[in-house]
Amino acid sequence: MKKKILILSGGISKERLISLDTGYQVANELKKNGYKVKISEPNKLTENINKFKPKIVFNALHGQFGEDGYIQSVFERYNIPYTHSGVIASSIAMDKEISKKFFIKNKINTPKSFIYCFDKKNSDLIKKINKELNFPVVIKPLNEGSSVNVFICSRKDIIKNLKKIEHYKKVMIEKFIGGREIQVAIMGDKKLGAIELKPKRKFYDYQAKYNANAKTQHIIPVKLKKDKLNKLMNMALKAHKVIGCKGVTRSDFKFYNGKFYLLEINTQPGMTKLSLVPEIAAYKGISFIKLIEWILKDASTKR
User: Fold this and answer.
1) Catalytic choice (9, 85, 91, 146)
2) Over the stretch 61-114, which tens digit does the pLDDT of each residue have?
3) Is 270 a catalytic residue?
4) Is 143 annotated as catalytic?
5) Which of 206, 247, 250, 251 is catalytic?
6) What is residue 153's three-state secondary structure?
7) Could you give all domains of the chain from N- to C-terminal order, each with its CATH number?
8) Cβ–Cβ under 8 Å, residues 106 and 238
9) What is the pTM assigned to this prediction?
10) Could you say which of 68, 200, 221, 250 is the most buried, measured as most Cβ atoms within 10 Å of its Cβ?
């Protein structure tokens, strides 16, 4: 008899809809293959653990409280096996300021940046950008995923865009890197593969990721020389390891002027019909159910 799986999805982050979609897709695939499955919102976790008595929790949450170490600490309190990365790795990867420090310390190339607090003067900000980064720059929250509230800014519109996200109190301002968008999937200690994205939009933002009408072009295999591709894959695996990630991760890179720049690492990649990790896995001959089953097999009580 196949194990009972509790799928945790939804939640309260700005990525709620993507999480619901991920949860539905995973649940549907497991049911088709004979598993007993229940989908749960986080606020029903205790109730469903006690009543349903699952063997494993598949964490399909995205964003705050779902992939930042918070819910992982709850799983560990219940001593129940769960998927993806553990408390510490999840919290590091989700925090762009801290994860970037890990990248820099371990000599993983990443765009220059600094943290901006909203109690500072705008005139000082422009001077600092001109001195350290130059325009254009990217402004982004420290603890959001799926490119939520990310803006590419010129000198003319940076103040206007900052006002849109001032409720975060502090944000990252990063040197904008042009060039090619390439994503790399890691599966345990295995370099699963890479995919290049050509968005019709200004960059690979929330709409480009999750709206089929955005018509983002997916290119696999990535057209890179073998040595360059190996370097890229090794960078992704190194980032996965130095942060202490488990299960499947997806790292976001830019390739510009012959150099790779790691933007961030995602510890709980989406499993929707437009998601990249299942697409990379399929190209490598790993079906959606086999990918899910590998993730479940990799689950443990301490990550």
Assistant:
1) 146
2) 998 888 999 999 999 999 999 999 999 999 999 999 999 999 999 999 999 999
3) yes
4) no
5) 250
6) strand
7) 4-84 (3.40.50.20), 93-108+178-298 (3.30.470.20), 113-175 (3.30.1490.20)
8) yes
9) 0.89
10) 250
